[in-house]
Amino acid sequence: MLIAESTVTQNCLNQLKKIGLANNEPVLIQGEPGVGKRLIASMIHHCSEANVKLCKPIPAQDISGSWIRKLQKQIERLSQSDNFLICHVIENLEALSDRMQSQLLLIMDMLAEKGDGIGAGTPVRFIFLSETDLSHLIRNGLFRKDLYYRLTVLNMYVPPLRQRREDIPLLSEFFTAKYSLEKHCSLVQLPGDIKTAFSAYDWPGNVAQLEETIKKAMEKGMVAWVDDLYQWCQDHTKQQNRRSPTLPMDVDECLRKMMDKKQGMSLKTARQLCIMKMEKDILKTALFRTHGNCKKAAKFLNISYKSMLNKVKAYQLFGRSLDSNQRIGPGSENILA
Fold first, then answer.
1. Distance CA 219, CA 211 (A)
2. How would you class 292 by CB atoms within 10 Å of its CB: exposed for 0-12, middle for 13-18, buried for 19 or more?
3. pLDDT digits over 70-126, tens only?
4. In angstroms, rounded to a whole number, what is the distance separating the alpha carbons of residues 229 and 233?
5. Residue 288: CB atoms within 10 Å
6. H, E, C per residue of the chain
7. Number of neighbours of residue 261 by Cβ within 10 angstroms
8. Which end of the chain has less neighbouring CB within 10 Å, N or C?
9. What percent of the chain lies above the pLDDT cut of 90?
10. What per-residue confidence (pLDDT) applies to 272?
11. Which residues of the chain have pLDDT under 70?
């Protein structure tokens, strides 16, 4: 279920329907962790007119030579006359090794040979999920450009929750209803001031963090859950008010995520991702200190204004000006993520 109150989410929903109807074309879905890329992938196949079999998502780092060989046999066995579509979902595409990138490119070639183009006329579809801007990885030599263009026939970006705050009250009500029924077999209502506090919070973990926060509160019991959420709002509002964008002190968080998710990653890729994260945080800090003024931030960082705009665009740091509530885009001088 995709709750779309904000304009940006409604645009995503409209785009999703069109992508679903393009049955065979590969799709790339990009967005921060927790924005709902898996949900989008499942909804794409529901929008398809074909009889779709959605395979279990596989992390890119788990793709091996044996998986590629099984996929090749599957493609050879299937034909255009089959009345169903097999959809493979590959997560964390940015973590795909150089060797597997080459192998996946061969798979794309196979699909092109079976149809009139990439994916055309073949009963196999790929949906790729990425938490990183792949075009930036290409510029740094970490992802194959030819593979990128093969995989991004259809491209979709899911914005973070802080850029679609209008969705937060409805999402909060939905998760409150879901977990109150699940945990207590009773429907409860979320107080308005909690929804207001939720809407003001930036939610770095996006929708997944919002859902987990409400779920944990509901586990405290039918009486205690409200007090728990009030305390959560009080604590996190203070933290957000005190906090300004800061530079990462180490890579412990990155390593923890790799251990928790059992994700492998080449040292070259890990190093570049850490550099990209530091550069992004430096840009955000400069924009924060200059009240979102790109020209002043460029001067602060001793780089050209054009270079500043390119980096702001590459890292998708579009947001709201500190000086007004007006939404601003890539052509604006004032900008803040």
1. 13
2. buried
3. 988 888 777 655 566 788 999 999 999 999 999 999 888 887 776 554 444 567 889
4. 6
5. 16
6. CCCCCCHHHHHHHHHHHHHHHCCCCCEEEECCCCCCHHHHHHHHHHCCCCCEEECCCEEHHHCCHHHHHHHHHHHHHCCCCCCCEEEEEEECHHHCCHHHHHHHHHHHHHHHHHCCCCCCCCCEEEEEEECCCHHHHHHCCCCCHHHHHHHCCEEEECCCHHHCCCHHHHHHHHHHHHHHHHHHCCCCCCCHHHHHHHHHCCCCCHHHHHHHHHHHHHCCCCCHHHHHHHHHHHHHHHHHHHCCCCCCCCCHHHHHHHHHHCCCCCHHHHHHHHHHHHHHHHHHHHHHHCCCEHHHHHHHHCCCHHHHHHHHHHCCCCCECCCCCCECCCCCCECCC
7. 13
8. N
9. 33
10. 74
11. 1, 22-23, 49-50, 79-84, 114-122, 238-266, 269, 318-337
Q: Which position has the token pair 């097999």?
A: 86
Q: Which is nearest to 316 in space by CA: 20, 7, 1, 8?
A: 8
Rounded Cα gap, residues 269 and 258, in angstroms: 13
125 beta partners: 87
Residue 48 has, within 13 A of its CA and on its CB side, a CA count of 26
Token readout for 201 is 């919070």
The span from the CA of 87 to the CA of 97, in Å, is: 22
User: Tell me, what's the pLDDT at 259?
Assistant: 57
Q: What is the 3-state secondary structure (H, E, C) of 109-139?
A: HHHHHHCCCCCCCCCEEEEEEECCCHHHHHH
**Residue bearing tokens 């962790």:** 33
> Angle, to 10 degrees, between the axis of helix 65-77 and the axis of helix 98-114?
0
Alpha carbon distance 207, 172 (integer Å): 9
Cβ distance 56 to 227 under 8 Å?
Answer: no
Entry pTM = 0.69
